[in-house]
Every structure is written in structure tokens, then in C-alpha cells.
Amino acid sequence: MEEIAPVNRVIWLNGELVPWAQATVHVLSHSLQRGSLVFDYMAVRETPRGPAIFRLDRHVQRMLRSCELMGLPIALDEAELSNAIVQAVRANPGGSSVKASAYFASLEVDVVPVDTRVSVAIAVYDPQTDLEDRLPQARPRAPRRPLRLWLEKEAHQRRDDIVSPQAKVSANYASSMTAKARAQQLGFDEILLVDENDHVAEGPTTNVFVVDQDGVLLTPPETRVLRGVTRESIIELARSGGTEVREQAIDPVELMAAREVFLTGTTAGVLAVESVDGERVGNSCPGPLSQQLAEMLSQAESGNDSRFDHWLTYVGKED
What we know:
By secondary structure, the chain is an alpha+beta fold. Helix content is 25%, strand content 26%. The chain has 2 domains: 10-134, 2-Layer Sandwich (D-amino Acid Aminotransferase, Chain A, domain 1); 147-301, D-amino Acid Aminotransferase, Chain A, domain 2 (Alpha-Beta Barrel), CATH 3.20.10. The chain has helices spanning 30-34, 56-70, 78-90, 127-131, 174-185, 229-240, 253-256, 288-301, and strands spanning 10-13, 16-19, 38-47, 50-54, 97-104, 118-125, 147-151, 190-194, 200-202, 207-211, 217-219, 245-247, 260-265, 269-276, 279-280, 312-314. Strands 7, 8, 9, 10, 11, 12, 13, 14 and 15 form a 9-stranded mixed beta sheet that branches.
């Protein structure tokens, strides 16, 4: 078998840039054994002015809020964390994804760590070449297409009385992992979770939008879901184009009656939904609003819409 070359990247780890292979944590660390790792994920886009991080400020604010909710006393403030992310991006040219993590690296016995020092690691990489192509049973990447969606009936979305939906913490993804695996075995591409009141909530790593028969764009209230940065961007883009947006509870039957349904996320962008539980959504897919918003988002991310230039943090070489 052909030997795969090591990943030639560095990771920002507690103030230092270390080789990719050396950014490790012990198998008995609290973060691994208790699922206490907090993270955020953001994109680096190519623009006419060079690479730029999309909405860095909102991602950093969300990560710090997640640390606060989970009781991780991270030592970095917003400016320090932002600067560290920019440094990591500059040190890894060609990287398109940024994953920043905060975690208890210490080896702990109890659920409450004694050593509360928080480590911070920032990885910048290309998901395909640095990760997916190196998996032992890597599957060919599926073509981008409208999604066949499964509405999950057993596993519910994260609950505020257990772990806040606003906390982007690793433990919050366990139930959706198994639910999505079941749906994929049935031939579906993605799942939607419902909350404890059986209202539509979100996907494992995406937010959901519904275009009703009046052309109004609906999405679950931000208090009930993770406050997706792409979700926030789509709401602002839609309103800038004259579309009415309402944040409200959505009953599952509204998915079937919708003109359009689409998902949003940092990786997904805007992904149109073709069907839910095998029932076709709308008359065309992707629908006109899905296509319009996908193009508007692409223009904003790539620095081609001056109205949203403030969403970009340019990371060219330091002067």
C-alpha cells in the first residue's frame, strides 16, 4: 500500500506553532473522557484581496460564550483569540477550514476537573487533502445535490435543561451522530432534529429555513438552536433583498407544505432540500430563494459585495 506523506502543517497550541503530528492530548484527558471540549469552526475564503476569514468576530464571540456556558475558564479574550486564529491561518497557506478548540488537557478522575487550566488549539487545514483522503476507507465525495432529509423521530435535539443549545461542545453531538448514521443506512443524506416540544429544531451541524406559501422565510427561534453564524448571515442577506424573515416555532407538517426548505452551515453554505421522509418539497429544487441566497452568500464570502466587506478579516502577510 502506498505510504501517505505526513500532513505538512502547524497548529497553534497555547501560544506556539507546533508540527501537526505533535498537537496531541492524552487518552485519559478530561476533554476526551467527559466530552468537555468546546470548539468553533470557520472558513477561509479566497477574495480579490487575498484570503479572508468569514465572520471571525461572530465565531470567536460564540466560542467564548460556549466556554462560559460550559465553565471553561479560557485565559484568552476576544482580541487575543482572534489574533491567534489569524496567526494560525497565516502559518498554513492554502488552508480553507479553521477549527479552534478549548479543552481540559489534564488527566482527571471525576466529572469536575481539579486542574482547570484550559488548553487552546487552532488547526487550519484543507478537509479533503489533510483529512478525508487519509482515511483508511475513504469514500468518494458525493456530488453536491439537493438533499434527501430524514426527520428524526427518536433522538431529540439538545435540551436547555441538560446542555444549552448555545454551547458548541463535543458532548452535544453524540446523539445526532447515531441518529444520522441510522438515516444514512436508510438512504437519506441528512437529518433534522426536533426539540422537546416536537417542533423542528436543526440538523447536527446545520440550521434550517422554510419558505412558506406566502414567500416568507421561516426559521426556528435562536433561543432553541445553536446560533449559527451562517444562519445569522442568511437572515441579514434575505432582509437586505426585501424578503420577510420570521423566527418562530415550526411544526413538522410545515416542511411538507413549504415552497422550499434549505439548510445552512459553515461547510454547507446553502443546501436545498429535495424531500423530507421521502415526500417531495415544493415544485422545484433548488427553489428560487434558495438559489438567490446561495449566490448572495457566495458573493459576500468572496469579497465581491462591498455591503458586507465588514464580514471579512483579511489575513495577508503582516506589514
